[in-house]
Amino acid sequence: FLPKPLKLTDLTTLVAQLDRVSNPVSNDSLNSALENDHFFLMYQPKIDLSSATPVSVEALLRWKDPDLGIIPPDKFIRFAEMNGHIAPITWRVMEMAMSQLARWQSAGIRVTMAINMSAVLFSRTDVCDITSRLLAEHQLDPSLLTLELTETAEVGNLMLGLETMTRLRIMGVDLSLDDFGTGHASFTQLYQIPFSELKVDRMFVGKMHQDPNAYAIVRNIISLGQSLGMRVVAEGIETEQHQQMLLEMGCNLGQGYFIGKPMTAEDFETWFAKRCS
Ligand code: C2E
Ligand code: CA
Ligand code: CA
Ligand code: CA
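A: This is the predicted complex of the input protein with calcium ion.
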């Protein structure tokens, strides 16, 4: 009753599988995820703080691998940016988010849609053309769309995309500067790029109730954004106290687990119905 001896082919398969577990992100695995449609979106609401009503949702990307389960974006976006996958992935995200938005529009669910965009896309691809084509295809008004921009140190300069960003704004699409305070955005960019929204990074929001310096930073980002004519969104609201403090500071919009976690489209519809009744 000895166990069957392991064959060399079994071993090779085993090693390959172990390799995938320790390093799930590769050029091959990303290509195959795109080909086999393994990406999907979760939606997290943004509410107007003074009326506590939902105004928008942010599309957050997930990768469902058949062997490894759900892989969060922090694990693969950077790699995708550096290896030429970010454009096809983003166009797929835009397609999914806009068809969802169109469905919600016709169902009377009046929210706008925010999509995360790597800065690198603005200098290297025609974001403007693709956006306007997708909006037209789904018969969506450009004002229903917000593009959230994050700049990471490695992916170059936001300024290279200034012309594209200006064209998008003229078209009526909103631009949001994400992770303000911890990203790599500078005052020059805030000054030159026509952002309509500023997002306070959740690192400060999470600490402001116990840390006077974090509180001062949040207050001043709100005031800076609003003096420049932008609406300000606080992300990472995890408690009622956070929400109350931000309301008192005059912050426009809020987002976070206390308000609503990232949800499937179906769960968002239930959440929305409850919130609006
Ligand atoms: P982000 O744009 O700053 O998104 C906010 C992240 O914080 C999300 O993580 C969200 O699930 C999480 N979050 C929301 N509320 C709370 C809260 O109250 N507490 C805490 N602790 N966390 C909260 P997620 O979905 O894992 O996304 C991580 C990052 O990946 C995003 O950060 C964004 O930069 C990037 N990302 C997501 N989807 C896309 C995409 O389609 N394209 C690109 N280029 N990047 C994306
Ligand atoms: Ca974002
Ligand atoms: Ca953010
Ligand atoms: Ca972030």
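The chain has a mean pLDDT of 93. The longest helix spans residues 86-106.
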